[in-house]
Design goal:
The chain is an alpha+beta fold. It has four domains: 5-89, no CATH class; 142-336, no CATH class; 344-480, Immunoglobulin-like (Sandwich); 483-630, Sandwich (Immunoglobulin-like).
Length: 630
């Protein structure tokens, strides 16, 4: 209960709280001091104020004012106490939550994750940035650009660049990459002839020249001046800025009779591409001058040129027909300045999206081998084998031709593309010999440089003469690491043809490893041995790495053993031993090549084994491969 003692001119006295809850003692607050807490129900306060007002009406106003202030102060204190209680509860909850979460198991934020990725991936700079942003800026596809930016180190970038040019080489058998040489020649020409306050390769004329080469003809007006418009531009006489029209009779993927117009509106030598043939008109904004034919005849107004549309040609005898072609000019511009598309986009969808094949399956076999190139690079030859009977042949002028598109992609486990290849394989046979050739096989071979690691290899093929005939292949690709101190070997390759190539062809062309041409025999699956006929020769190829070198003689000392074993009886039917010094005395790497006639072998299953015993490093290693004699 609140007790109030009235005095003249205001309220004075002591306030005490009776009946405090929770066992609290009554509190007293002297006059002039703020009440720390409103104690007791609000109804008691109101009752006390009412009694005071009845006893002395002269202090009515003072009492009302005092009671109001008292209630306001109490309400504020209650609100503050509620907020403080809520804050304490939240703090306790957060503390408890922090204690429950293990910092080591806490998921990383996007900022932390991106920082970790940036730390792993080296920044693209120097020659590699120049190569991407300048050298191949106009010919690299968006997918290739993205793949190159995601590479982690310079070794991967070097391998990517090598494969980039190999993909575009029109003659893979040539030691010179004609495409690359022509590309850099075009860049040099553009820089020499089209520079205008910036390098020539950055100008629009340089862009078109680098992408498509020299035009078949050029209509050049280097000084502008008087110009008679053709009828499709409205006719009439005018004066122009300097401009050029490049004409190409044919551009692959774009069309025939392509005209590309460049205008120098700044009169500074910087010709820019335009789809508006009226942009070169220097009098287009001068009233009464440079009128078209219809404007001279009063059949059109010059202001009509600027009422919309992509070209400011004005009306003319052929104006209605030309206006309908404006979108064609926009489409042309998008094709001219777009990077070259992927050749086999339909096959890329099967690889990227793992689409299911709805039509008949196009069967083919794949083999991968591994050959060390450097300490950090492994050459991975990929062999695709297709039976001629599965290819659709079309006969014209006495020649039966089958065409197969092949697209391959190597990706990391995080779906980052590191290598791609695409080619068209043609198989031609005289029409009268087609039936006999159907039992043969056609082979496609591609060697990719890769870093050691685990990848995924995807290949898709399409029968061009039967578009619904598509085949796909997908498998893990575990590229081995060749340790410097451990005796190791490449894959053991079996083939029916092997020969040494000239120094001019080393490393160039199909099925060439080093200075040896050997095309691997491919089995339907790793568990099935390759087959040979008794009239053929068995050729095998393998390299040995990290042989020990004697410090005194500076030569190796190893024993190489060749064996052919009949797997049915486990009997060795052929064995030959050679010393490593007879193959290359002063090298820690040996190339083992051997040709054996198999006419003396009975039909059956066999296994060829090559064993190397290094007497210096005291290490042994062996590789074997099964085969069948038919």
């Amino acid at each position: 209960m609140v007790q109030v003692s009235p005095v003249a001119g205001g309220l004075s006295g002591n306030l005490s709280c009776h009946g405090a809850s929770n066992g609290q003692s009554a509190q007293k607050v002297s006059s002039g001091q703020p009440c720390p807490q409103l104690c007791g129900p609000v109804e008691y306060v109101l009752q006390g104020c009412y009694k005071v007002m009845r006893q002395n009406s002269r202090v009515f106003l003072s009492a009302a004012l005092g009671c109001g202030l008292l209630l306001m102060h109490g309400s504020r204190l209650q609100a503050q106490n509620a907020k403080a209680s809520s804050a304490d509860s939240a703090t306790a909850s957060d503390t408890s939550q922090d204690q429950e979460v293990d910092p080591l198991k806490r998921p990383r934020s996007d900022k932390e994750r991106f920082a970790a990725q940036k730390a792993v991936r080296q920044e693209l700079k120097g020659a590699y940035k120049t190569w991407l942003d300048q050298d191949v800026a106009y010919i690299i596809s968006d997918e290739e650009r993205k793949a190159f930016r995601n590479l982690s180190n310079d070794e991967e970038r070097e391998a990517f660049i090598e494969q980039f040019w190999l993909r575009r080489n029109p003659n893979p058998d040539s030691p010179e990459n004609e495409f690359r040489e022509e590309h850099y020649r075009r860049i040099a020409y553009a820089n020499e002839h089209y520079a205008a306050g910036k390098p020539g390769w950055k100008t629009d004329r340089g862009h078109i020249y680098i992408s498509f080469g020299a035009p078949d003809s050029i209509d050049s007006h280097p000084s502008g001046g008087a110009y008679t418009r053709p009828m499709d531009e409205g006719g009439g006489e005018t004066s122009t800025f300097p401009f050029e029209v490049w004409h190409y009779r044919y551009l692959e993927g774009i069309g025939e009779n392509i005209d590309i117009e460049f205008v120098d509106t700044c009169m500074c030598g910087d010709y820019h591409f335009t789809i508006d043939r009226g942009e070169k008109d220097a009098l287009s904004h001068v009233p009464g001058m440079g009128a078209t034919q219809w404007e001279e005849m009063g059949m059109a107004k010059k202001a009509d040129r600027f009422k919309g549309g992509f070209e400011s040609l004005g009306n003319g005898p052929l104006g209605s027909g030309e206006s309908s072609k404006q979108f064609d000019r926009i489409e042309l511009a998008s094709k001219l300045f777009a990077p070259p598309p992927v050749k086999f986009k339909d096959l890329d969808n099967f690889i990227s999206e793992h689409k299911l094949i709805e039509g008949p399956i196009f069967p083919f076999d794949v083999r991968t081998d591994f050959v060390r190139v450097t300490d950090n690079t492994v050459l991975v030859p990929i062999t695709v084998q297709i039976k001629n009977r599965d290819i659709t042949f079309v006969t014209k002028t006495g020649v039966a031709t089958g065409v197969v598109n092949i697209l391959g992609k190597v990706t990391t486990l995080t779906h980052k593309t590191v290598q791609t290849f695409e080619d068209t394989v043609e198989v031609e046979q005289p029409a009268e010999l087609l039936e006999k050739s159907l039992d043969r096989r056609s082979v496609y071979w591609k060697a990719l440089p890769l870093l050691p690691g685990l990848y995924r290899l995807d290949i898709a093929i399409k029968d061009v003469n039967n578009p619904d005939h598509i085949g796909i292949y997908g498998s893990a690709l575990n590229v081995p690491e060749f340790n410097d101190e451990k005796l190791a070997t490449s894959s053991l390759i079996l083939g029916d043809e092997m020969n040494t190539v000239s120094s001019h062809d080393i490393g160039q062309g199909s099925c060439i490893i080093g200075n040896t041409h050997i095309c691997p025999r491919v089995s339907p699956n790793p568990a099935t041995p390759v087959d040979f006929k008794r009239g053929q020769e068995l050729n095998f190829w393998m390299q040995v790495y990290n042989l020990g070198i004697d410090e005194a003689t500076k030569s190796n000392q190893a024993m190489v053993t060749y064996q052919i074993t009949d797997t049915a009886t486990n009997v060795v039917v052929f064995e030959k031993k050679l010393e490593s010094k007879d193959l290359g005395a002063h090298s820690d790497q040996l190339t083992l090549e051997r040709t054996l006639p198999i006419a003396g072998l009975q039909p059956g299953k066999y296994k060829v084994t090559i064993q190397v015993n290094d007497e210096i490093s005291k290490q042994e290693i062996a590789q074997s491969a099964p085969f069948v004699v038919q």
